[in-house]
Amino acid sequence: MTAEPTEPIEGTPLIKPSSTDHPLYENVVDACRTVYDPEIPVNIYDLGLVYTIEISPENAVGITMTLTAPGCPVAGEMPGWVQNAVEAVDGVRDVDVSMTFEPQWGMDMMSDEARLELGFM
Asked: Which candidate, 27, 42, 54, 62, places its Cα nearest to that of 105?
């Protein structure tokens, strides 16, 4: 017997929604904006590399992020940079950063500010 791959249910988001209503959310976003991909002069949040920011009622932060490419030279370091930046936010209990490549990052995930900065607008 072989297991058949399961397809996502139509309408199910590929990226889990963030805890945007949590009081620490904007501060966590601001902390993410202090982290830059060394090859691109735009912060990782506006590049669209941060997929999900989940904040528990106990102020534990879970971040799901990606990279512009799986072979990114700072792949092993960037999650630590994000963790250090977010741990410094007043009120954050602990931080867990996980990497994913599903869905794959694309230039359409960048904010308008990032596109403008990089000359795509």
From this structure: 42
Distance separating alpha carbons of residues 82 and 89, to the nearest angstrom: 11
Q: How far is CA 72 from the centre of its chain?
A: 15
Residue 29 CB: number of other CB atoms within 10 A? Answer: 17
Question: How does DSSP assign 59-115, residue by residue?
Answer: -EEEEEE--SSTT-TTTTTHHHHHHHHHHTSTT--EEEEEE--SSPP-GGGS-HHHH
Residues 6+ apart with CB under 8 A from 47: 37, 40, 68, 109, 110, 114
22-63 pLDDT per residue, tens: 999 999 999 999 999 888 889 999 999 999 999 999 999 999
CA distance 69 to 65: 12
* Helix/strand/coil for 43: strand
